[in-house]
Amino acid sequence: MNPIGFLVFLVSAIALLSVPRRYAIIPLLAGVIFITHGQAMDIGGKQPVFRLLLGVGLVRIILRGEGLGGGFNRIDKLMLLLGGWLFFASFFHEPGAMAAGPTFIIGKVGEISLCYFLVRSFCQDMDDFASIMGLIAIMLVPIALEMIQEKFTGINLFSKLFGGVREEVVVRDDALRARGPFRHAILAGTVGASLIPIMIGLWRRNPGAAKIGMIACLTMVASCASSGPILSLGFGMMGVFLWKFRHWMGMIRWSIPIGYMVLAMIMNRPVYYIIGELSMGGSTGWHRSKLIDSAINYFGDWWAFGTDHTRSWMPTGVTFSEEHTDITNYFLAYGVMGGIMAVLLMIAIVWVGFKWVGNAIDTIPEDDENGDRFMIWCMGASLFSHVATSISVAYYDQSVFFYWFSIATISSIYMSRLNHAEDLLEVPPEPDDPASRMQWSRF
Q1: Quick one: pLDDT at residue 437?
Q2: Where are the transmembrane segments (predicted)?
């Protein structure tokens, strides 16, 4: 860790321990967004600043006795179950196995769990969420500006300041692929794309921040010069558009498996090869489709507790391991670490998250002035963008935070709205007040 990185970490850590709860997310976000993954301390292996600040956040919660907004819920339990299962499954891997042994899994479980539970603690209602998103909108501006200059100069300024990412910008198909503080251009663009639906939802509460955030996020998507984030943006905007058809979502959900079966009957190859058809330019869409195909064909090798060898799945491997291929699928990455149970737990977490988006919306009157119904819907659209992206991208570095941030905020807002609805039920309306009777009937 260089002196600048250490200074930023020290200031962020002190602030994280000392500021009131509603502001605690600010120093955490500063460490997540601005400091590269290469800034690390050797504590039981190299621990990036991102993880160190998560540890500081845990210390803060323990010292202050800060709990989860609304109490313990189903997604909280699923998160603990996922972490416990991954740790258990790690003992069925080689002790020094790349990305699967107990030491690695302890770090991975701690990372995703703390991302989730810290956000659950710091964001407890819609006011908290709107404030956090306003902060993120402003914080992304320097990232967007730096990525623009990467496109013009071919130099990554975060590499010069912190290191940990390549100084020279990668070129593909004659296009410079800016990455900012992230380790890959696709991850930088994906973070921007996934946040755009929430910026749209933020418009009524904070139009200034919403406009700034959308411009910054769109700049990140454009500057990364990757087709994946463009598709992520498309899925997110599709989710936002479906707000107009929210009353038909039951029929829309049923149309998805029906549509899949129809495509399976008319296509010459498995339906998931559409991923390759959707890819643009020089991207590796075929690889992502073939990876799913190989995971199915080699199911017997990994279904129980994962596997330490995936090199035989694909014609190409990765530079950092002779035993593995490039697992460009977030769900399958967990399958490699913990078998089919880990994949099912990931799906269950996402499933409950989508369900709770609808349940939270139902607790808010149709005429809410803050636009919270639409905001919550946009949170679901952002999660939809992440889930769709996960089929072709395995999140790593600080981009992991934004995936679990999406799930954690939905979990917190659902609990906040549920408790609010229960409070209303505890106080019966005045029988002579028609407006109160109408509000009562909603619950």
Answers
A1: 36
A2: 75-93, 129-148, 185-203, 209-242, 254-275, 331-354, 374-395
pLDDT at 97: 67
The span from the CA of 381 to the CA of 375, in Å, is: 10
Question: How does 117-147 read in b/e, with b if 16+ C-beta sit within 10 Å?
Answer: bbbbbbbbbbebbbbbbbbbbebbebbbebb
pLDDT digits (tens, 9 = 90+) for 211-255: 999 999 999 999 998 888 999 999 999 999 999 998 888 888 788
Taking CB atoms within 8 Å and a gap of at least 24, the contacts of 267-275 are 272/391, 275/391, 275/392
For tokens 């300041």, the residue is 161
Residues 6+ apart with CB under 8 A from 361: 246, 373, 376, 377
Among 398, 400, 404, which Cα is nearest to 49's?
Answer: 398
Taking only the tens place, the pLDDT of each residue in 124-145 is 999 999 999 999 999 999 999 9
Alpha-carbon distance of 206 to 295, in angstroms, equals 45
Residue 45 pLDDT > 80 = no
Query: Residue 214 to residues 112, 138, 181, 440: CA-CA distances in angstroms?
Result: 26, 10, 19, 37
**Looking up tokens 């959308």, which residue turns up?**
214
Instruction: Provide φ and ψ at 155, rounded to 5°.
Output: -120, 135
Q: 233-270 burial string, b = 16+ CB within 10 Å, else e?
A: bebbbebbebbeeeeeeeeeeeeeeeeeeeeeeeeeee
